[in-house]
Design goal:
This protein is mostly helical. The protein has helices spanning 2-8, 20-49, 59-64, 76-90, 96-121, 129-150, 175-193, 199-219, 221-227, 238-256, 265-282, 286-292, 294-313, 323-329, 334-355, and strands at 161-162, 167-168. Helix 2 runs antiparallel to helix 4 (76-90), helix 5 runs antiparallel to helix 6 (129-150) and helix 8 packs parallel to helix 15 (334-355).
Length: 385
């Protein structure tokens, strides 16, 4: 919307307002302030209508979370509202990546809201796993197909980048199922991580920040060439998306820090995870996301490993999965777990950004020019003694 106004009234435009970095910062600020403004009113409404029930097969986990009983949930409503508003105002709505981001945000938020409502209104634990997964796959498939159609004229953009090696993988049509897998996997990984006050939100800030840097570099011709990254035209707008996401998450953390006044619910965790995966898919950095989102990968992997080993050997690898509950069972205070996971997420983000410099080969420094010879009055250089 802002770019549309600049195009229609160029003489009234503030110099530099159309730049991606400034619009990303403004999107972050707008999303943050809107989440703060909507938070108190919406939390009051959620407290009257939607309170989180503590349901678990583990008696110990129910005991540990007993104090959280009846905390308002579905706080993702004002988080996603702030994010989408910031994106609409400061993003380039003619950009295919922004259009796809809105599809993912609204589509996965709808899936998450339906799941949350079923949990709160009925006696079940929400949508069945296959119904929920089907909804996620349909949204992700639509998003990736739109991106693929957009890039059909640039086949080199359709190849995922391999970190550290600086090369790409020629997958052809295989990029579509890979992209769907990344978006759905990231969506569910963030959802699994959202089990303690502020845990998922804090980890998301670091991961989104790192992927935002990657998106900006991928859309910048000189930076992409310097860092040996796939040049994706228009992908720089994903930095505006990253800014809107960070602002919305930080506004939500204002109310979600321990002890939480509101929970995100699937309404927030599913779209945030899906958008994180979308940034990776749009910039061909699917493999780098595994490192940047290392905490989310560990959380999802702990659940998968726990299920496989229990069904195969009848024993548990962890006291409870996802892995943050394992540390709870070992007696760690909730704040200690959350802050240490934040630190781990920050380290993963730093390592991910550092990978971008791995394949940069700086040219050797030029040798300094030799000083001019000293010429005497006779016109001859003095003999060396």
């Amino acid at each position: 919307m802002l770019l549309w106004l600049i195009e229609r009234f160029p003489e009234a435009a503030w110099p530099g307002l159309g730049k991606i970095t400034l619009r990303g910062a403004l999107a972050a600020m707008a999303s943050f302030l809107l989440a703060l403004a909507l938070g108190p009113r919406l939390i009051g409404w959620l407290r009257r209508h939607f309170r989180e029930p503590i349901r678990s097969d583990s008696a110990e986990l129910r005991r540990l979370h007993q104090a959280k009983e009846s905390t308002p949930t579905m706080g993702g409503l004002f988080l996603v509202a702030g994010l989408v508003a910031g994106l609409i105002v400061f993003g380039d709505l003619a950009n295919r990546f922004i259009q796809v981001a809105l599809v993912v945000a609204l589509g996965l938020a709808a899936v998450g809201a339906i799941d949350d409502l079923i949990k709160l209104r009925g006696r079940t634990n929400g949508l069945s796993w296959w119904t929920k997964l089907l909804g996620q796959w349909l949204v992700a498939a639509a998003a990736v197909t739109l991106l693929y159609m957009h890039h059909t004229q640039e086949p080199e953009v359709l190849m995922p980048w391999v970190p550290l090696l600086g090369s790409t993988l020629p997958l052809g049509l295989g990029v579509i199922p890979l992209g769907v897998l990344v978006i759905v996997g990231a969506s569910n990984a963030v959802n699994l991580t959202d089990g303690l006050d502020g845990l998922a939100g804090g980890c998301l800030v670091f991961a989104i920040g790192a992927m935002g840097v990657v998106a900006y570099a991928s859309g910048h011709a000189e930076l992409a060439e310097y860092l040996n990254l796939p040049r994706v035209r228009g992908a720089g707008e994903m930095a505006v998306l990253a800014g809107a996401m960070i602002g919305g998450v930080m506004g939500f953390l204002w109310f979600n820090c321990h002890p939480a006044q509101v929970f995100m619910g699937d309404t927030g965790s599913l779209p945030l995870g899906g958008l994180l995966g979308l940034i990776a898919v749009a910039t061909r950095q699917e493999l780098l996301l595994v490192l940047v989102g290392g905490v989310f990968v560990a959380e999802a992997a702990s659940v998968i490993l726990q299920v496989i080993v229990y069904r195969w050997r009848g024993r548990r690898v962890f006291l409870c999965a996802p892995i943050h509950h394992h540390f709870q069972f070992r007696g760690w205070p909730e704040n200690r777990i959350v802050v240490r996971f934040w630190i781990a997420s920050a380290v993963c983000a730093i390592l991910g950004v550092a990978c971008l410099k791995w394949n940069v080969h700086e040219p050797p420094p030029l040798s300094p020019p030799l000083p001019p010879p000293v010429v005497t009055a006779s016109g001859h250089a003095p003999l060396a003694r």
